[in-house]
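Final report, Chapter 2: Outcomes

The project's central promise was a pipeline that accepts a single protein chain and returns its three-dimensional structure in a standardized token representation, suitable for archiving and comparison. That pipeline is now operational. To close this chapter, we reproduce one record exactly as it appears in the project archive, with the input sequence first and the structure output second.
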Amino acid sequence: MLELSDRPLILGHRGAAAELAENTLGAFRRAVEQGADGVELDVQVSADGVPVVIHDPTLERTTNGRGAVSSHTWAELSRLHAGPGEPLRSLWDVARWAADAGAWLNVELKAEGVAEAALGVLEEADVLERTLVSSFLPAAIREAARSAPQVARGVLTETWDAAVLDLADEVGAGAVCLHHPLATEANLAELARRGLDAVVWTVDDPARIAGLLRAGVRVVITNRPDAGVRARKEAGL
């Protein structure tokens, strides 16, 4: 299981994404201001191997750039905007912020070949002990296990099948990160039986968040950190 805090964690999905541009320092700061324990974020890789905090493999949706993230150097990417007054950030920028803020991070590896560099950044910033690394990509989570065996790992999934549980066992994951419809009583019980924690995404309904926390979910990821924090309080946790 994950070595987490005494209480379950509320993490802002790409920050306070319901209010501010996703995966920006402004959104991350707002999530923590609202009482979240930290944030979930996404990492792609630049042409020169720099971990970049952005969800999509392409730039158009969330920045003023064009083309693939992986076809641009970090020097080129660092000149782009990810929101009003918000530059596109490297993982180093965010890791330093998290170190200063005492924030937890759930770093989703969106590409193969980024794990070693990402974990090196997180270790240098001294935030590995407050980081959960996750991925949908088996190769990426295997890379994370090799690069930093001590870091907490979670297998991301939108399906429930034996392959997910087998992968979690193979890579020594402490958690399975479930899309919220999969967080059923039976599935949560199976994870507990296997000694795996449940991380559930993305849940914005306060009643649902409270129910998941009462059921033993260790991390809830939400676009509305303020609602998540209130729900945790109402659940008595």
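Archive annotation: Residues 58 and 69 are 5 Å apart (CA to CA).
This record, like all others produced under the grant, will remain available to the consortium after the project formally closes.
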